[in-house]
Amino acid sequence: MARQKPLSLYRNIGIIAHIDAGKTTTTERVLYYTGKKHQIVDVHDTKDGKGSTTTDYLEQERKRGITIQSAAVSTEWKGHQINVIDTPGHVDFTIEVNRSLRVLDGAVVVFDGVAGVEPQTETNWRLADQYNVPRMCYVNKMDRIGANFKHAVEGIKNRLGANAVLCQVPLGSHDDFIGMADLITGQGYIWEGHDKDSKWEVIPLDQIANHPKVQAFTTAADKEWVANLAQLRDETIEKALEMDDEAFDKLLNAGDVETFLKSSDFSLELLKKCVRTGCVQGKLVPIFCGSSYRNKGVQQLLDGVVDYMPFPGENGGIGLVDEDGNVVGEQGVVDEAPARALAFKVINDQFGTLTFCRIYSGVIKKGDTLQNVTRGKKERIGRIVEVQANATKDIEEVRAGDICAFVSMKETETGDSLTDPAHPVLLERMRFPDPVISVAVEPKSRNDVDKLSTALYKMVKADPSLRMEVDKETGQTVLKGMGELHLEITIDRMRTELGVDANMGKPKVSFREAFGQSVEHTYTHKKQSGGSGQFAEVKMIFEPGEPGSGVVFSDEIVGGRVPREYIPAVEHAIMVESRQGQVAGYEVLDFKARLIDGKFHDVDSSALAFEIAGRACFREAQRMSKPKLLEPVMKLEVVTEADYLGDVIGDINRRRGSVSEQGQKGTNAFVQGFVPLAEMFGYINFLRSATSGRGTFSMIFDHYEEVPASMVAKLMEKEAK
Questions:
Q1: Are 341 and 418 in contact (CB under 8 A)?
Q2: What is the C-alpha to C-alpha distance for residues 265 and 258, in angstroms, rounded to an integer?
Q3: How far, in whole angstroms, is CA 31 from its chain's centroid?
Q4: What backbone phi and psi angles, to 5 degrees, belong to 485?
Q5: Is 17 flagged in the annotation as binding?
Q6: Which of 169, 199, 574, 650 has the fewest CB atoms within 10 Å distance of its CB?
Q7: pLDDT at residue number 472
């Protein structure tokens, strides 16, 4: 079957933002205005459990009014197929944003018009930088008290480092928000009302100031935007034309923007083409505004997606890598190539497994067999479905640029490469964060013992930011994740989706260890008990590394003092032994292990003997180095009324934290700082009582830091309880 729609008419986009910026509300409006839905459900109307938005269909999402897992929906706008992924904004679910950005061609970043740039927005922005994803910004909630478009734009430029180009500016704010001025088309859009089918009036830019609704503006800031429209449009046009040398030369020849606009060289298509070029190449970030809840601006945002977001492959394909992760080539997004797809998400429920995939090249049909290159297994494609949040529709084939789900794949996990068996290659993988918090999990009844391990395995397979292990000393099953909410919701989802009830123990922090100083140590392993013996001697230097440098093994043997075939055994010993340090049994981070000398015996030496020597050498050297215990330190932001700021700052200091910044965010005050995770359990209870329920906070892992010597014993005692 031939391609139904050219690739240039596809848009694969994600909607990303800090929690509560309005991503799900915006997605609901997108589905309504594109004809996919005939009724709008608002997020705050779902907490009774009776209704749900399209993308927040999990019971846990409805109850809490937040997005927990990314959900994909497909729709059409002006002849273009738009595949939208609505992602979570809570820090505990950053993994969902991570894996979505890996496979998307563009992202719409939503901002709360009052709060502007928030911590999770910065995290998501860095992820988009990492995956080279073009972005456009949508400043939402312009109808709220304290909405400040200028503050949001300055944050986008200064805190995110974006080369922002204003495509729209708001007309009014709060109750006066009536629409927006489009600096690209040179028109204003003024809505007649707030309801979802309200019409808008289109008027030329130079007539906006005379409109009765505009003349009724009460604040100086709203009036200033209107007064500066002509100048703002000139700046936008100039910045856009810089993206095209030929167009910019014509502007220079014209002398100024006004003259250029009246010349035959100018056209709206040329201007949009220049903005698109800059956006696709990541050199420009178009900014839009609106109020999704009040149904203003979503249609214009969709026009922006069509006009400025790249189609699949327009800003390059996906990197091909070797087994060590080094890029060795690139796969373009084309049908006429071997089939290549990346699995970016796995969902398990009582009905089976859905493996979400982005198709990068070729055509995959029902019944085809693909090679899972990551795991060296073959997978037969039984069913292919197009996913509409929690509903599916069977399809016969998928092509380059598509996002779909394969049903009941047995071997494939998140990040795996699926390719034509005749042309196996590895696609560039995703990078996942390490968990920072752990809890013991046990079944509620004896009947659930076997079911619990199966359910946990399914949850861990679906979410790479979860880890499961069995504590060797206690025999407890330990689940590790990104935060208290992450683990709590994982346990709750096992109950609702897999029918397994479990009890969750008290959260524990994932500490780390490090070498305190450089140590040179020699260890000799000798064993003689009849028959052939064991002999190996290693001389090693262990040096602390820079934060984030990882474990580095250096082979510095000369003159065959240790035969080549035994050196990998020593390296393996160091890598394995570093997972359990000598302070409290936590993983040892960031050091360099240099093998500088050794001895061997012609008969008694073996790889096993050298591995044993390497392990013992590491253990003794770490103990000798005055080892350090490291704890995860979180970046914390609290937003509350100014009256409560003193109590919040005092509490941060009591929790061994430090304040890095404080200031105003709209009508509220904010404070940012760094606090050890061990001191943050149950923080929401303090904040609610200290701020009469008005304070909100967000925190994200920032770095590991040495635990003060006086606190080590106290913390270890606390963790052991």
A1: yes
A2: 12
A3: 23
A4: -65, -40
A5: yes
A6: 199
A7: 64
Tokens of 339: 């089939």
d(CA 332, CA 317): 4
Is 450 annotated as ligand-binding? no
Q: Residue 680's closest CA among 643, 642, 661, 654? A: 654
Half-sphere exposure (CA, 13 Å, Cβ side) for 106?
Answer: 34
Neighbours of 79 (CB within 10 A): 8
Write out 551-586 in H/E/C secondary structure: EEEEECCCCCCCCHHHHHHHHHHHHHHCCCCCCCCC
**Do the annotations mark residue 86 as ligand-binding?**
yes
What CA–CA distance (Å, rounded) separates 325 from 320? 9
Is 18 known to sit in a ligand binding site? yes
| Distance from the Cα of residue 353 to its chain's centroid | 23
Amino acid identity, residue 405? Answer: A
Question: 365-413, pLDDT tens digit by residue?
Answer: 999 999 999 999 999 998 998 877 667 788 999 999 998 889 888 888 8
The response to whether 194 counts as a known ligand-binding position is: no
24 marked as part of a ligand binding site: yes
Is there a binding annotation on residue 141? yes
Pairing label, strands 417-419, 340-349: antiparallel
The residue whose two tokens read 């312009």 is 142
CB 615 within 8 A of CB 573: yes
Q: Please check if 575 is assigned to a binding site.
A: no
**Residue whose C-alpha is closest to residue 591's, from 520, 518, 539, 510:** 518
Measure the CA–CA gap between 333 and 7, rounded to whole angstroms. 9
User: Is 626 annotated in some ligand binding site?
Assistant: no
What is the predicted pLDDT for the residue at 54?
46
Q: Which helix (H) or strand (E) holds 524?
A: strand 519-527
Single-letter code of the amino acid located at 610: F
Q: How high is the mean pLDDT of the chain?
A: 86
Mode of pairing for the β-strands spanning 534-544 and 591-599: antiparallel
3-state secondary structure 193-228: CCCCCCCEEEEEHHHHHHCHHHHCCCCHHHHHHHHC
Find out whether 574 and 551 touch, Cβ atoms under 8 Å. yes
Which is higher by pLDDT, 114 or 51? 114
Spatial CA neighbour of 666 closest among 691, 648, 640, 690: 640
Helix ranges (DSSP H) in 263-408: 268-280, 298-308
DSSP label at 435?
Answer: P
| 22 carries a ligand binding annotation | yes
**CA 614/CA 532 separation, integer angstroms:** 20
CA atoms within 13 A on the CB side of 227: 7
